[in-house]
Amino acid sequence: RVPQLHPKFARAAPRQPPRTHNRMKRSKAEILEERAIVKQFELEEKQQKAKKALKGCGGCFIAILVLAGIGSLLEDPPDTDAPIGNRSGIRSLSINLSAADVSHLLASDFDLKESTSVDGQPRLLGHTPGKLALLEIIGDPSNIVKASLMTGIVSDRPDLTFVHSAYLMRFAQNVMPTWPDREQWMQDTMDGFLVDPDAARTVVVGDRMLTFRLWKELGSFFIDVKHKDSE
Fold first, then answer.
1. pLDDT per residue over 58-81, tens digit each?
2. Residue 125 Cα distances to 85, 86, 144, 197, angstroms
3. Where are the alpha helices (DSSP H) in 99-180?
4. Which run of H or E residues covers position 139?
5. What residues form DSSP beta bridges with 143?
6. Residue range 101-138, pLDDT digits in tens
């Protein structure tokens, strides 16, 4: 038997809206608003990751912002199929790093893919959306011979500048993980660019040689690692 509501309380019973199994269609404005929220959330998440990567080197970010007035905006990204930097006479001297080591916490942003070989060496190449940052890895993926990262200086996008700073720090950390002076060296190099933008700086740790330079003509930073005896 179904319980019946006492007549005394019949008028107090709330009226229930009719049930329907059809979902209400969202307006275009609501969909766009939702997408904007998701995009903003993803940006904030990426910035949080960048902050962790930049911990201990906040001055690098400030220096890059100042240097943005020196380098020109990278309006025409370089051909991503072309090798980065000078590729003549690459010697097959491994640096005891794998492609996975170099691209740790970077691969998802750069979408690394196989590209044309360089002097017979396999090559992985990836870029961020907009092609404002490029990552190149040369050699056997299990034991590479060289890796390079180029990041554009975008003067009117401090958010991108912050993320690009994190890329540079992450790359240095990936290829020189046990070097205790890594962060200080990066900071000193940035400070040096403020005095002399044309001065490249190189350091050798073990068998690896790390070079960091500013390319004013491209409006970009360039950092690479290779064997100290490579040509």
1. 444 444 444 444 333 333 444 545
2. 13, 16, 13, 27
3. 99-102, 107-110, 158-175
4. strand 133-140
5. 140
6. 999 989 889 989 999 998 889 999 999 988 889 999 99
